[in-house]
Design goal:
single chain, 219 residues, alpha/beta, binds adenosine-5'-triphosphate, binds magnesium ion
Amino acid sequence: MRVILSTFNKGGVGKTTLAVHLAGALAEDPFQRVLLVDCVDQYDSVNFMSGDSPEGKLKTLNTKYPNVSVVWNPERESLRKIIGQSQYDSVVLDLNSPAKDTVKAIVNAQPTGVFLPINRQALALGRLKDTLALVAAMAEHTGYIIPVVIVPLGSDIDSVNNALEDCRDSIGSLTVKLSDPIAFDPEHFENSLTNGRFVWEYQGCEYVKPLLQSSLSSI
Ligand SMILES: Nc1ncnc2c1ncn2[C@@H]1O[C@H](COP(=O)(O)OP(=O)(O)OP(=O)(O)O)[C@@H](O)[C@H]1O
Ligand SMILES: [Mg+2]
């Protein structure tokens, strides 16, 4: 089972946007059973996928996509507890802070990859270093090599690259890749989240799906 975290040590940087689209990109393969785990009080990922509020904590809901389920896990229970006897090929977690104990509580399975969104928000880049340091601590704790993919969501790619250069000593043995950038597009991205539609359904944004699929297959 593949376990993907979408996280960042800062609010409003695009974690939910990235989590739902990663789940959608994985679910393009009809044989993939995908579970999106929303670990945030605000349950934006549950809303996006089901078009509704959660019926309660840890209640797995079907979505309009036949191979995607969603579950609200604000207490950050372990994956084993959430999944029970169900079988999934991929699990994507929308997680609002990668604090060490939180991640440990959720990911007692080996995480396949950590995806870090960075949108245009002014303070996002300033928090890259401590986000990477936390992921590095998590990798050290588990003893696994955890690939990290930074996904620029409308942010300036040169600035992201520079910020990444400044982080080299905090990343330990992490492998950090920078994905191709997703363009700044407030209208379609805002509409996507509000309407619960993948952004690649809007004209001009079709490229987002293969871009994320390629990032997923690179880890
Ligand atoms: N490529 C993009 N272009 C423009 N805006 C974008 C892009 N990607 C994401 N955004 C915007 O960034 C904002 C924050 O996104 P999102 O809600 O996914 O962040 P978050 O990290 O989940 O926030 P929170 O901490 O509140 O859960 C949204 O308004 C979204 O539309
Ligand atoms: Mg969110």
